Amino acid sequence: MEYQALVIGAGIGGMQAALDIADSGYEVILVEKEPSIGGHMAQLSETFPTLDCSQCILTPRTVEVGQHPNIRLLTLSEVIDVQGEVGNFRVKILRHPRYVREDRCTACGDCTKVCPIVVPNEFDRGLAARRAIYIPHPQAVPAVYRLDPDACMGLFPLACGKCAEACEADAIDYDMAPEVIEVEVGAIVVATGYELYQDEAVMAYAYMDHPDVMDGLEFERLLSASGPTGGRIIRPSDRTVPKEVVFIQCGGSRNPEHGVPYCSKICCMYTAKHAILYKHRVPDGQVYIFYIDIRAGGKGYEEFVTRAMEEDRTVYIRGRVSKVFPSDGKIMVWGVDTLTGSKVEIAADLVVVAAAIVPSEGSRRVAEMLGIGVDEFGFYTASDEEMTPVESGVPGVFLAGVGLGPQDIPETVAQASGAAAKVLALFEAAKSMNKD
Amino acid sequence: MSRIGVFVCHCGINIAGTVDVERVAEEIGQHPEVVHATTYRYMCSEPGQQLIRDAIAEHDLDGVVVAACSPLMHETTFRRASSAAGLNPYRCEMANIREQCSWVHEHEPARATEKAIEIVRTVVERVRGDEELEPFRLPLTKRALVIGGGIAGMEAALDIASAGYPVVLVEREDHLGGKMARLSGTYLNFTAAPDLLRRKIEQVLNHPNIQVLTGAQIVGVEGYVGNFEVAVSGFKVSGSRMTKSETSDLKSETFEVGAIVVATGWDPYPLERLPEYGGGEIPDVVDGLTFEGMLRDEGGIRRPSDGQVPREVVFVQCAGSRDPERGVPYCSKVCCMYVAKQAMMFRERVPEGQAYVFYIDIRSAGKGYDEYVQQAMEEHDILYLRGKVSKIFTRDGKVVVWGADTLSGRPVEVAADLVVLATPMAPSRRAFELAKMLRIGIDQNGFFSEAHPKLRPVESLTAGIFLAGAAQGPKDIPETVSQASGAAAKVLKLFSQDEMVQEPTVAYVIRELCSACGACVEACPYDARSIHPVWHIATVNAALCQNCGACVVACPNKASRIHNWTPEQILAMADVVSW
């Protein structure tokens, strides 16, 4: 038995599983494809239903992971091959070059200042720009810059080289090459998370490419005090404060014809949160929410939605939206109110679509490598969804978080600890057997 | 005289963009006991920590102040670095000049710099008075107690036991299985579920590390994390390993355990509290759990009043839930799904029957759940009516349901043979009493409170006590099972240590000043204080003390103190503040 675990994905689920295993005295290899850890939770402004600042509760966790003596963190990395079986998986991990040495970079930011290239910042969902050499956000763990080879003017041959000149720590290494490392682990936790549905044509809101029609994560960045606007709500097209905001729930969800048939579970709650936070920032603004059912099942959730309706005077309209289109500097929203049976037309300044949650890109490949099942949408399947929800059916491979299906943060965290328990029980049992 | 080093962090531009960090270092360097003061871009980075370690050796420092971010962020980092260089870690403190200074005074750099200097000055005073401390080491009993033998408690017990630790599983009923044992089946796996549960119960009963106590009641809880003493009374010991004679006597015993998992589940809301729906009055108005029993009955579905097979069945969702006036403002989360299941099962057993479901919102958020309800509507012709039910009464042997269809805006009347009320999932009957014994929190609805709603969902605020299942709030079986394993992980993490290490910055008593008035005993929210029966002075149970300072405030003689937060230190800090 290799008393070491592999955790794939370093969002809140993967981090929790890694910490629970590492705190119990076992080594963990934590693999993350992005340059920094924290997953989507790092992008959130506040969290429902307590309106805790997401960064504030998350950063101590990311720092803990980054500094944990039992966690070996591999960012910009992907698992490319898995052989073997429970107790002894042989795993190949591809480490993409960062072109910045983690052991030297002090995150001073001198490199960014001299970089001439400007591209959209993925972390801010394109609402702000970054340089080719950048750090995703100020609290990023590891606190190390990364040179994006696709954005850079050219590495082979070197076209610019200004960042290396500016770097006092001598951290920039243009010759860094991709590296494949091999590790042996006894157990694996898969926590690869989610993405938001991007196919606007399928979502039937053909204007998702209009700057004033955005998805929920973009709106999180607008709300975030550490986001591109410093938490000020201004619409991207003309930087004015939107006074009429329409939120459209089930953007692609619960829509077998034009999207996915399943419910994305978290949108009702985060939309209520968006409405409340918007009203805190724009007290004279008005929020409209189109919904099919309000799904507020969770501790304090029902009360939270009631607060959005009663205290923040959000207008909830039960019905689907048929059309969204720009007109005279406004975004027109056509929908139906199924409770009155009448048509509704709203000339909005900003439209936020709660886009469906889909499995993270690459989750099918991970499933294939590990021999675990996926459903028709690409979510991992548990050996029994109800009775053994964190077990994949492949011994030694456990599941946690939204990779299994849409769920919120507390569910993900509890489930990740659950997956960690299975790993710990496996290791402890093998250890006591060896002792006997 | 101390030899203190001060290390001022730029935090990139987070601090240095507002505060003149060089001036801070320069000013504080004037202090007679500060022998070294410097700045660095990122003190928490490896080179930054190395700079501190080197300075401790080079300048023979006996105290360190790191002026940077909140101690919540990096106190551990810098104490570890100090300790690596041979300094007692409790003589390293952080001065927060980021969250409490640069971030909030972005537009006033000059005054922010002055404030930063003052903050650092106060912390220098604190370090001057800091004692060298050593962490406490406490023994740890590596045995867990799980309260509740439902699916949550069994899952937690099995995970802990599989890792090789002994578990005492306490169940109030005379059998395991909890509410799940009363269900006909689960949503997705209707037929196999009872079998899966039976196997789980057998696994628990046969596990060599699990001792099952049934008919048991927790009567007292003493101690603290790692060393709880739990008194259990009136129980029988079950399990295949037990001989017949052992299982027959009622026993009482006190168990020493290191951790406790609370998995006490839920109880049905009393039907009598729904008089407008005929609850408790009309025999053919039943709750969801009763209907589960009817589905399990091999004789088929028979209504209670006359044993006839019901043809028209009305299901009423949110019968009590989401109703703040009734004191149940919360959503019970599982009803939308079990009602869809029950309606489909009814249609399968009584194909000529008709099922109606009154709902407010259909909350089928879960894997495959929305599709499941769609199936109920489309393939099983179950009629979903969006609206509340106003009244249920009997007329000519029928149970008449008056409601509204908010989609058509019309009143609806259904003359039914049977009405199933999806009543609230209420907290377990003994939850309040148990919470008091365990000293754990309870929320406004009577469910146990988790330590943090987002990031610590399976921990209580009391160290060593964890939560699983519906005891913490309504949830379905898969969520309960995941969470129960999560609680087990926390127990395994605790048991992975050989002893417990406790922070030494706890309260203590100056014996000469103590008059044994008991004010500290009253003030302590953690039961850490008591009056010693022989010495007749106040004492501190360091394992229970959470360093809150309530006793310090309450003590009229200044006999109660906290290590490294003494009145002398606090006054010295106040003395150097210029405003």
Can you give keywords for this protein?
heterodimer; A: about 425 residues; alpha/beta; FAD/NAD(P)-binding domain; 3 domains; 5-stranded parallel beta sheet; 10 helices; about 25% helix; B: about 575 residues; Rossmann fold; 4 domains; 8-stranded mixed beta sheet; 28 strands
Q: What can you see in these coordinates?
A:
The complex is a heterodimer of chains A (436) and B (579). Chain A has 436 residues and is an alpha/beta fold. Chain A has three domains: 4-96 and 178-193 and 360-435, FAD/NAD(P)-binding domain, CATH 3.50.50; 110-166, no CATH class; 198-356, FAD/NAD(P)-binding domain. Chain A is built from ten helices and 24 strands. In chain A, the strands form eight sheets. A five-stranded parallel beta sheet of chain A has the order 5-2-1-13-24. A five-stranded parallel beta sheet of chain A has the order 15-22-16-17-18. In chain A, a hairpin with a 2-residue loop joins β19 and β20 (330-337). In chain A, α1 (12-23) packs parallel to α10 (409-435). Chain B has four domains: 4-135, 3-Layer(aba) Sandwich (Rossmann fold), CATH 3.40.50; 144-265 and 428-495, 3-Layer(bba) Sandwich (FAD/NAD(P)-binding domain), CATH 3.50.50; 269-424, FAD/NAD(P)-binding domain (3-Layer(bba) Sandwich), CATH 3.50.50.60; 506-562, Alpha-Beta Plaits (2-Layer Sandwich), CATH 3.30.70.20. Chain B has 16 helices and 28 strands. In chain B, strands 6, 7, 8, 9, 10, 11, 12 and 23 form an eight-stranded mixed beta sheet that branches. Chain B has a five-stranded parallel beta sheet with strand order 14-21-15-16-17. The mean pLDDT of chain B is 93. Chains A and B meet through α1, α2, α8 and α10 of A and α2, α3, α6, α7 and α11 of B.
Give a short overview:
With 436 residues, chain A is α/β, with parallel strands linked by helices. Helices cover 25% and strands 26% of the residues of chain A. Chain A folds into three domains: 4-96 and 178-193 and 360-435, FAD/NAD(P)-binding domain; 110-166, no CATH class; 198-356, FAD/NAD(P)-binding domain, CATH 3.50.50.
